[in-house]
UniProtKB/TrEMBL annotation:
Natural source organism: Planococcus citreus
Name assigned to this protein: Uncharacterized protein
């Protein structure tokens, strides 16, 4: 899967350096997902010269003293340098040709820009969450005044994770780790032998839908929810977690359906998912 960085969503799209760094955090998440999942995030080789605000370019953000010493730059300099300087660059091996014309509402250019290249690749772009692009799911490009091509516009890491999952490029475990990152659910400790591979396709959808419901609630709502029935696991016989590193941890569970349960433990405001149950035998014992 190839995704083109939409450089038009950078050109003079920011109010100042603070606004840029707030929105830049999005691409850090995307960059990490690209590395973890081995897909290509392609950008133009001249990215360093693009003007972000006023007369300030990417290169200026990296090198000018007033930006170089900022807390944000100290935190992000390494990854910003990689994004600007490291391959892949789509224009070093472009698939669209200058004899074709690609017109859209966002630029007067007719070729040699990211949206034009996306038309000849997988038809995905990643855009910064700026005013022009943030509410657009699809971007239309007209090729040679005859063919209208729809480009999928991805704004967040969630958008990209959803596409990877829908295309079958990541499994449910990887999807949930990425999708629910920085939410009330964490799947980093989900045990493989008690996780998604034990579920049917329909069961996986049911579990994921319930996880979406879970993160939309605050903890007060979760604790009061009759539907979730969030409570402590208190085994009267054999402890399902006996002999594991979780033996002395207070294990909690919540309802996925009448028979299905999700087990884990809470750390501050995060529920660490450990195991799934689909036959209710464990729950019958606690």
């Amino acid at each position: 899967m190839e995704i083109i960085l939409n450089e038009l969503s950078l050109e003079n799209q920011f109010e100042n350096s603070e606004d840029f760094f707030i929105k830049f955090k999005r691409i850090i998440e995307v960059y990490k997902i690209a590395i973890d999942n081995h897909f290509s995030l392609l950008k133009p080789s001249h990215l360093y010269s693009i003007i972000l605000f006023e007369s300030v370019s990417f290169h200026d953000i990296l090198t000018a003293p007033q930006y170089r010493k900022s807390d944000e730059m100290k935190r992000y300099k390494s990854i910003l340098s990689k994004i600007i300087q490291d391959e892949p660059f789509w224009d070093l091996d472009a698939l669209h040709v200058n004899t074709d014309h690609y017109k859209c509402d966002f630029t007067d250019k007719i070729n040699n820009y990211g949206l034009a290249e996306a038309c000849e690749r997988d038809k995905y772009v990643f855009s910064f969450e700026t005013k022009i692009y943030k509410d657009k799911n699809n971007l239309e490009v007209k090729k040679n005044d005859s063919e209208t091509i729809e480009i999928k516009n991805l704004i967040t890491s969630k958008d990209i994770t959803e596409e990877l999952y829908l295309k079958g490029l990541i499994d449910e475990s990887c999807y949930c780790i990425q999708r629910f990152n920085n939410t009330k659910l964490s799947f980093e400790e989900l045990e493989e032998d008690y996780g998604f591979k034990t579920l049917s396709i329909e069961q996986r959808k049911l579990f994921i839908n319930k996880f979406e419901e879970f993160i939309e609630m605050d903890w007060e709502q979760i604790l009061k929810s009759d539907g979730l029935d969030y409570k402590e696991y208190t085994p009267s016989k054999k402890n399902w977690f006996g002999g594991t590193e979780y033996n002395q941890i207070k294990i909690m569970k919540f309802r996925i359906s009448q028979k299905y349960r999700c087990f884990g433990y809470r750390v501050k405001d995060t529920f660490k998912v450990l195991r799934f149950e689909t036959n209710h035998k464990v729950s019958d014992n606690g």
